[in-house]
Amino acid sequence: MNKEAWSKKTEEDLILLIKDWLRQTGRTQSELCYNLNLPSARIQVLIDFLKKDFIAGGIPQIANRLCEIEALWTEDIDGISKNKKNIELNNAAQLDLLDEICEDLSKINFNN
């Protein structure tokens, strides 16, 4: 079986998938990174982490990882509701959020 290679397109698609998934679940990038035990909530740290999963097992490996996190959130193992969780955003995560907002705004045509 021939595995698909990591590419810039794969990375871009994965970023879009994660952003949409987080919106749908009502979670944040910081919560995801926290649950993955990552040292930072920056998108590049997250992508580098998931790239290792991709190399190990392709998209199914990434899907399994994200399903594990969603199950954790659904079960609320720590007994803490997501509304009461207090995960501090570090400066880098705030800059990522600002970059995402600017990117989203750049796609809007304000001339209409």
Concise account of the structure shown:
This protein is mostly helical. It has one domain.
Task: Name the features.
globular, 4 helices, 66% helix, 112 residues, mainly alpha
Please state the overall shape, judged from the principal axes of the Cα atoms: globular
- What does the largest sheet look like? none
Mean pLDDT: 80
H/E element sequence: HHHH
Helix content: 55-70%
User: Tally of extended strands?
Assistant: 0
- The assembly state of the depicted protein chains is single chain
Distance between the termini: 50 Å
Overall tally of structural domains:
1
> Beta fraction of the residues?
under 5%
Number of helices: 4
Q: How does this model look, in words?
A:
The chain has four helices and no strands. The protein has about 110 residues and is mainly alpha-helical. The radius of gyration is 15 Å and the shape is globular. The model is unreliable at about 80-90 (pLDDT under 50).
Write the layout of secondary structure elements.
Layout: H1 8-25, H2 29-35, H3 43-75, H4 91-106
Helix pairs in contact: 1-3
